Amino acid sequence: MARGKEKLQERAKKIKVLVLDVDGVLTDNCIYLDDAGVESKKFNILDGMGIWMAFRAGLEVALLSGRPSKATEHRARQLGIKYVHLGGIEKAKAYQELKTILGMEDSQIAYMGDDILDIPVLKQVGLPICVKNADLRAKKHAKLVTKTEGGKGAVREAVEFILKAKKRSPLEWVP
């Protein structure tokens, strides 16, 4: 096994919390507005299952987005995500607050982002992850870049990577 891959798996073994940006990570980076200006977003079921698998494996999942969104709040409730911070572009500050609430160290946290507002958090966490179609400036700070684009199952891919490093099979929970 390549030395770099060993180090990446060692980082992944320590992860207890997966923090996700929303737009461009959990969604396809599009915002849909109807004639009345009501916003909707498209979420991928594979990502929802990945979050479910993370919970089943004992990981905590949190959302950290620069945009307020009723659609995101609704999806977070559906998935059982307790820690949701929306509407603050100072993500590093929100990350510090979340870290304090959870009582975790940087090395125990993975963050998945896709754009320049994510860079301050990507630089702090134990496992910085970017989606395939992330901004190149953000990707420079990622230790793991998914093969899948945001909103198309990239979160599921990242969860499975973390579970594999922890020697947990995603099939453990299939009835």
How would you summarize this macromolecular structure in one to three sentences?
The chain is α/β, with parallel strands linked by helices. It is built from seven helices and eight strands, in the order αβββαβαβαβαβαβα. β6, α5 and β7 form a beta-alpha-beta unit.
What does this structure look like?
By secondary structure, the protein is α/β, with parallel strands linked by helices. The chain has one domain (12-170): HAD superfamily/HAD-like (Rossmann fold). Helices cover 37% and strands 17% of the residues. It has helices at residues 3-13, 45-56, 70-79, 91-102, 119-122, 136-139, 154-165, and strands at 17-20, 32-33, 39-40, 60-65, 83-86, 109-113, 127-130, 144-145. The strands form two sheets. It has a six-stranded parallel sheet with strand order 5-4-1-6-7-8, sandwiched between helices. Strands 2-3 form a two-stranded antiparallel sheet. Helix 2 packs parallel to helix 7. The radius of gyration is 15 Å and the shape is globular.
What features would you highlight for this structure?
175 residues, alpha/beta
Question: In the CATH hierarchy, what is the class?
Answer: Alpha Beta
- pLDDT under 50 segments (min length 5)? none
| Radius of gyration of CA atoms, rounded to a whole number | 15 Å
The third-level CATH topology is Rossmann fold
CATH H-level homologous superfamily name: HAD superfamily/HAD-like
Number of helices: 7
Shape designation: globular
How much is the average pLDDT? 93
Query: What about the largest sheet?
Result: 6 strands, parallel
Helix content: 25-40%
Major sheet: arrangement of strands? 5-4-1-6-7-8
Query: Beta-sheet strand percentage?
Result: 15-25%
Distance between the termini: 33 Å
Number of β-strand runs:
8
| Second CATH tier, the architecture | 3-Layer(aba) Sandwich
**SSE pattern:** HEEEHEHEHEHEHEH
In terms of structural class, how would the helical and strand content be classed?
alpha/beta
Q: What's the structural domain tally?
A: 1
